[in-house]
Amino acid sequence: MSDKPADAPALRAKLLRAKPADFGLAATPELPRVWGAMMEMRIGSADVSLVAVAEGSTSLYFSTGGGVIGGGEHESVRAANRKLLGVIEKLFPAFVAREAPVPVLNGAVSFAVFTYDGLRAARDTEERLRQKKSPLWPAYYIGQEIITALRLATEKAAGH
Predict the structure, then answer these.
(1) Which of 7, 10, 43, 123 is the most buried (most CB within 10 A)?
(2) Global pTM value
(3) Count of other CB atoms within 10 angstroms of residue 6
(4) Domain interval for residue 54
């Protein structure tokens, strides 16, 4: 696991161009439509992108550079990844087909869902998500679980 991806914005752009076959993925009974997801929010001057792919890849990218890649090496992170994708599959009707992800805005959380039929997206305010007033709140909370699992795995790997 690396906490210093060389070019996090380029990794995000590569993901947006990716196809499920690039990861060796095909629809499954658990995930018949969804093969990946990205939750994005602005923290300070950085846009933060949490990425979960059905083959286990889990990463956190910062628009200012850096982040965490290779989180899927840890079972706690992989378990949270599977949980997030399962919830997004259940919330599928809440996401709208789009050509590109919705822009990241201050005070909002954006979701991009990678499906076998193309990109879908949704956004809501962080306040509504935190207060569980948005239909997307389960995905937001599990995304936060993944961020925590990544942080703990990174600290453990660093010997803290």
Answers:
(1) 123
(2) 0.90
(3) 10
(4) 8-157
